[in-house]
Amino acid sequence: MSDAASRPVQVRGEVLSTRRVGAYHHMSLVAPGVADPTRPGQFVALAVGGADTGLVLRRAFSIYRVNSRGVYGGTVEIVFAVHGAGTAWLAQQPPHTPIDVVGPLGKPFALPREPVSATLVGGGYGSAPLFGLAEALRSRGCRVDFVLGAASEDRLFGALDAKRMASTVAITTDDGSSGLRGRVTDALPQVMDRAGTEVVYACGPMAMLRAVSEVTRDRGVTAQCLVEESMACGIGVCMTCVLPVRDDDGVTRMVRSCVEGPVFRGEQVRWDDIGTVPADTYGAPVVAH
Amino acid sequence: MSEGRFSVRTVPAPDRQDEPRYDFRTNLAGVDLPNPVLTASGCAAAGRELEQFFDVAALGAVVTKSIMLEPRSGRATPRMAETASGMLNSIGLQGPGIDHFLEHDLPWLHERGARAVVSIAGGSVEEFAALAGRLRGAPGMVALEVNISCPNVANRGLVFACDPGAAAAVVSAVRDRTSPSVPVFAKLSPDVTDIVAIARSCVDAGADGLSMINTLLGMALDLDTMRPVLAGVTGGLSGPAIKPVAVRCIWQVHAALPDVPIIGMGGVRSGLDALELVLAGASAVSVGTAVFGDPGAPARVLSELRDALAHRGFAKIADAVGFAHRDMPHRKD
Ligand SMILES: Cc1cc2nc3c(=O)[nH]c(=O)nc-3n(C[C@H](O)[C@H](O)[C@H](O)COP(=O)(O)O)c2cc1C
Ligand code: FES
Fold this sequence. Notes:
The structure holds two protein chains of two kinds. Chain A is an alpha/beta fold. Chain A has helices at residues 85-91, 128-139, 159-165, 184-195, 206-218; strands at 9-21, 24-30, 43-46, 59-62, 65-67, 75-80, 98-105, 117-123, 143-150, 168-173, 180-181, 199-203, 222-226, 242-246, 252-256, 263-265. Chain A folds into three domains: 9-105, Elongation Factor Tu (Ef-tu), domain 3 (Beta Barrel), CATH 2.40.30; 109-228, Nucleotide-binding domain of ferredoxin-NADP reductase (FNR) module (Rossmann fold, 3-Layer(aba) Sandwich), CATH 3.40.50; 231-271, Dihydroorotate dehydrogenase B (pyrk subunit), domain 3, CATH 2.10.240. In chain A, helix 2 (128-139) links the parallel strand 8 and strand 9 (143-150). In chain A, helix 4 packs parallel to helix 5. Chain A is globular, with a radius of gyration of 19 Å. The termini of chain A are far apart. Chain B is α/β, with parallel strands linked by helices. Chain B has an eight-stranded parallel beta sheet with strand order 3-16-15-10-9-8-7-4. At the A-B interface, strand 1 of A face strand 6 and helix 7 of B. Bound molecules: flavin mononucleotide and FE2/S2 (inorganic) cluster. Flavin mononucleotide binds next to strand 14 of chain B.
């Protein structure tokens, strides 16, 4: 894979368009130089709030789609929910608002060399980075199936995109307003049986990723999970975005999700221990007796 | 459509040879730096990540993340909370330990031609001394910054910079183990009643200079869960919100100890912010939290500061250091 070659750039971009999609906002940004090197699973970090803002941290967003051609010199699309002041500001910006963009950032999804059967699991707007991935997988001859879940129908993202790209699409909602009532992991085992899944790609809330990793582990299938830890910088200098990850030698470290991730193999992440420093972590404080 | 409409941001060249109008070099206790803009410890790792955005060797120096003797996992997440014009962090000095630093990080900076101000942290006087011993003679290190003021420790009693005696003990142990050609800067906490007293005891113990300010101890509550936001409960406040505290601390210490060089930091995100710290008495300025919002910030601050100084007619940076004190009664000259 060519991820080593893709080096992020910092560019002054601008808003091309924004629109509502259910409970979410879809934004296209002109960001020259970002689109071309982007691989599925990578993200951008945006400065929010305008000049002299009191919002001092960047906001990280998974890249939904890119277009590296065209008169605008490259566009990047993101999908987000309004969570706080930064995303509220972003959602209100009209076309042509200048936005400082850093990207592409992070390690992309690992793509299989063989044309395997891949199942893509998305929770809420977490599905956004899966569509570029689906295209990449299909161009390698992979079978692609989708499982999309959300709290309710307006929080599903990309069901139509999924139907266009995938062999099958299973939908779940917590309230039953669309598809099966329940969680993605209620549908996942059947989908995997039917599709003969050899690799799962997942993005969504931590609890979902954890549940997906359990299903895949039980079945001996690898899962590539894209995590959304809160990030202050997105470029690896602040150490706020860490989570406990076990490496191939069995050593757990607190690793930065912005540079070592955001994609991790599901079995490497110690999901149950997120929010703690497990006692056997490399460099963990020694408890005094 | 014009090509330049969406131009990629360019970072200013390190030294504009075509503009020799004034001298941007600064001297930190005998060490000449090409300019007075530095990174801040813990906000630039060891420079590698920022190198993607600008040439770190073009800065006055890279101040590296405080390194400890042993590898350290740091604290649990959440480690960060954004606050009005600032942030709280409780990283807990996560790092790879001195062996890794000496093998991988410092050599990288040295090869790049960057100057490193190496920040060290320890839980005891002995640990600080051992770190200084390990670093003795390390190529690329132009100064040591002794972080005696990290607020993210379990026991507030362990913040050396809150006690003049403890601060002095660390500084003199480090000074003893460090080559005379390498100045030792003590990094002070603003969370004290009398920062001048702490500054004085550090200088008496052999500190060649002072860095200020570290973060202020703060806290935020999550109003949905009605619990602390940070896993570590309390954290260090940084960013533009603390700049007035930094200006005050630098002002007081420079007034009392005008010959002691100060590396100023706290809320700098523009050249004008940097100028304010210089006028208060800083001979160099570190850019910390601003990097998180703008990875190009140190290079941008450098070029903005250059313009701000030129605009005010300063022929060299030394003339601007402490300039705001000129008509004050404490200034006898
Ligand atoms: C995330 C983070 C980590 C920090 N880590 C360290 C550290 O390891 N050692 C240190 O001396 N100061 C550390 N600091 C403090 C900064 O170096 C600086 O003194 C402080 O943040 C004020 O400057 P600023 O407002 O420009 O960030 C850290 C600050 C932040 C925000
Ligand atoms: S977000 Fe700053 S290190 Fe990952």
